[in-house]
Amino acid sequence: MKAGELFVRCLENEGVEAIFGIPGEENIDILNALLNSRIRFISTRHEQAAAFMADVYGRVTGRAGVCLATLGPGATNLVTGVADANMDHAPVVAISGQSATTRMHKESHQYLDLVNLFRPIVKFCTQIIEPETIPEVVRKAFKTAEAEKPGVSYIDLPENIAKTEVEGKPLTVGIPGRAQPSQEAIERP
Predict the structure, then answer these.
(1) Which of 26, 36, 37, 173 has its CA 20 to 30 A from that of 20?
(2) β-strands 124-127, 152-158: how paired?
(3) The pLDDT value given to residue 112
(4) What is the pLDDT of residue 105?
(5) What residues have CB less than 8 Å from 59, skipping those under 6 apart?
(6) Is the Cβ–Cβ distance between 31 and 163 less than 8 Å?
(7) Are 78 and 106 in contact (CB under 8 A)?
(8) Which of 131, 100, 118 is nearest to 10 (CA)?
């Protein structure tokens, strides 16, 4: 399967119901995988609106809202909504497409170092450079976003990585149990 499809399977595994965003060339593999998914893609007029919609979704449900942008200026349009969500402790996972890793060293079409742009305004920020790490990265992004004192996780997915053939499956989502004392400890004076 393509890495974009594995990425979407990991989102399904996290219980994602909707993604707010704008389609683009650099996130097309995710969008194609969404065609065969139960996740609804809700197209917005602007990436900033997508980030705010994910923010509200996170605040209302307590589960991470998800927004998606394309590279460069599309991703920078997420910044205001992402910063607001993180400052207000709303769980959000923001995802953007990115130029191919083979073009990042060039003055390439709309390439920006988005990881360093988002790092100061999110809890967790990474770029996927090996498609085999997708399950671990997605799990960590949601775990971090939804942990105590929620906030935003940002994932940058280069277009050539999303197109790569990969084997893998989503990681198990563990629901932490509540610690309970033994009956003996309860009865002890």
Answers:
(1) 173
(2) parallel
(3) 86
(4) 72
(5) 88, 90
(6) no
(7) no
(8) 131
Euclidean distance between CA atoms 37 and 31, whole angstroms: 10
Q: Which residue has the tokens 């085999």?
A: 132
* Token couple for 39: 């996740």
Q: Which long-range contacts (CB under 8 A, 24 or more apart) does 43-50 make?
A: 44/20, 46/22, 46/77, 47/21, 47/22, 47/74, 47/75, 47/77, 47/78, 48/77, 48/78, 48/80, 48/81, 49/20, 49/81, 50/20, 50/21, 50/22, 50/78, 50/81
Q: How far apart are CA 135 and CA 90, in angstroms?
A: 23
Report the candidate in 161, 158, 162, 160 with the shortest Cα–Cα distance to residue 75: 158
Distances in Å between the Cα of 102 and the Cα atoms of 30, 145, 184 are 20, 30, 62
Please give the structure tokens belonging to residue 59.
């605040």
Helix, strand, or coil here: 20?
A: strand
Residues paired with 43 in a beta bridge: 21
Distance CA 128, CA 39 (A): 22
Q: What angle do CA 77, 40, 70 make, to 5 degrees?
A: 25
